[in-house]
Amino acid sequence: MGRRRAWLVIAAPAVVLFLAFWLLPMAKLAGIGAATPQGMDASAYWLVVTQPRYWQSLINTVALSLGATLATLVIALPVSRFLARHPDFPGRRVLMSLLLFPLAFPGVVVGFLVILATGRQGVLNTLSKALSGDPMVLAYGMAGLFIGYLYFLLPRTIGVLMTAVEGIDKHWLEAAQTLGASPWRRFVDIELPALTGALTAAGAMCFATAMGAFGTVFTLGTRIDVLPITIYDEFTNYANLPVAAALSVVLGLATWAVLYVANSLAARTARGN
Amino acid sequence: MTHPLTIRLDNCAKTWPDGTRALAPLNLSIDAGETLALLGPSGCGKTTLLRMICGLESADEGGRIRFGDDDVTQVAPEARGVGVVFQGYALFPNMNVAGNVGYGLKIRGVDAASRRRRVAEMLELVELGALAERRIDQLSGGQRQRVALARAIAIEPRVLLLDEPLTALDARLRQQLRVDLAKLLKTLGITCVIVTHDQEEAMMLGDRVAVMSAGRLEQLGAPETLYRDPASPFVADFLGTLCRLEGGEVATRHGVAALTFRPHEVELAPPGRGLPARVQARFFLGSHIRFELTLADGQRFTALAAPDAIWQPGDTVSALIEQARVA
Q1: For the domain with range A34-272, which CATH number is right: 3.40.1410.10, 1.10.730.10, 3.40.50.720, 1.10.3720.10?
Q2: Which residues form the ABC transmembrane type-1 domain (chain A) (predicted)?
Q3: A266 at the B interface (CB within 8 A)?
């Protein structure tokens, strides 16, 4: 009895916080989304799922986030493996600091960096013009967005994966080696399964971060609509609260759905062998 | 089982990149079908030597390693055909027992049906037939040890290498598995190297024992030879306890500068006949009693006596040292 009461004392503030700052605003948001926007004849949810403009925005967002997540994992895995396996090559600390430097940057700064690198006055532009006479500008299209996303996803992911690689027992790899496994087989049979958890967690974090990314896209002023920008537009430019709320709910649900599928797949791979 | 091979190491040394010497140049020949135990304290180079044999470490320039007539010095570990049981076993956590035991066969492209047969055979051999589908984290320490052993021999290795195979287990289980392992090695008839810091394990499992210290081979021989005729005080002390007394009373009674002897070579008698000593402590150990004693000048030594010995701490006795040896 005493133990149960102690639990209540500990749990009560958490429950209050959860209700006040999560459940109530969420319910309110979901409720606003059910309202009918001015001059329309259906609820905002209906509009959001039927109008191609919003659909396109959702597809853009999911595609870009999935692509950026996969690219991040593909780049970060070999880099993390190298850094974890070579704890003391010259310049390692400097390299680590450089890699982790953009961690604290807000999206606006990342967007600005992308413009500096690949914008109309950017380094890439100048270089390509000098080399081929043809200026190359990536910043304001899909490629620019993609580069921007990598900027803020890579440092986060490298940190997580490095720790995971360091956690792999090197005797597992040596045992596989003496049993005849080539480096590739050791990677596929032993390392990847050991990293599944970390890859899933890092991937989920990347995807969720990318889905909600705003500052970078905003700064790049791209023609491509992603959901956070669409929400911002509906909210500030058109004062269309119901649609903004409905889109927010859709953004949350889409993110949750993709993460759910990814987690189930990862769990199945982990059990599969 | 494949035909057992000799292992020959010629002039094998190991220097780490920072210049420290892990192993002084060493020549060693292990007979076909023989089990050699590498015995020594931690840091003596025994595991490095084992890793050199399986190829996970390379020998310094000029070293040669041969399996039979085959020079394997430049052969990668994955192509050497060695079965290794690692310290801590290194079982793959993402595979079940059958997956672990069959992994080497899968790598070799053995088809699923033959693989299943061979895995069942191996598990039968280590008496784990019923556990094929178990996850690794559901196994006890002793079971893991057997799975690691089954995994190593499933590939029909040319030589078998065991790194501290029983160290992770509790004393009682270790005793039993030692007997089982000795029997299994005899059945397999494979050339085997066992690394251990446990002298009893080395003497029970090794046809010959190589005692190592500070990167050098101190002595190589049958367990009995090493025990009865140690080449150095280090070997004598590592294989059991060695006591040493010198000067004063020892010189007068035995006519030598110093005496070295083993605790069971001392007989305790009522005062008067041998070296006068005082009982400091008495430990009853079932099959015998262990006495810690001191001479009048403070030198300490140990004696083992039959379980009916009557001496108590504080008693004065005389120590008759049977096989008095000149140190």
Answers
A1: 1.10.3720.10
A2: 58-262
A3: no
Q: Which residues of A touch B94 (CB under 8 A)?
A: 190, 193-194, 270, 273
Residue B226 contacts by C-beta under 8 Å, 6 or more apart in sequence? B209, B211, B219, B235, B239
Q: By the CB < 8 Å criterion, does A167 face chain B?
A: no
Q: What residues of chain B, 53 to 82, have a C-beta less than 8 Å from chain A?
A: 54-56, 77-80, 82
Contacts of A179 in chain B (CB under 8 A): 78, 103-104, 107, 151, 155
The H or E element spanning position B29 is: strand B21-30
Q: Which residue of B has its CA nearest to A270?
A: B94
Q: Find out whether B24 and B13 touch, Cβ atoms under 8 Å.
A: yes
Q: Of chain B residues 100-129, which have a CB less than 8 A from chain A?
A: 103-104, 107-108
| B7-238 and B243-326 in the same fold | no
pLDDT at B325: 61
Closest CA relative to residue B108, chosen from B160, B155, B56: B155
Structure tokens, A154: 């890579």
Whether residues A190 and B80 touch (CB distance < 8 A) is answered with no
Residue B268's closest CA among B287, B286, B285, B288? B288
CB of B80 closer than 8 Å to CB of B73: no
Boundaries of every domain in chain A: 34-272
Query: Which sequence spans correspond to the domains of chain B?
Result: 7-238, 243-326
**pLDDT tens-digit map of B100-158:** 999 999 999 999 999 999 999 999 988 888 899 999 999 999 999 999 999 999 999 99
CATH number for region B243-326: 2.40.50.140
For residues A237-249, give the mean pLDDT: 89
Nearest CA in chain B to A267: B94
As a residue count, chain B comes to 327
| Complex ipTM tops 0.90 | no
Q: Class assignment of domain B7-238?
A: alpha beta
Distance CA B141, CA B147 (A): 10
Residues of A in contact with B88 (CB under 8 A): 171
- Contact (Cβ atoms closer than 8 angstroms) between residue B130 and residue B138: no
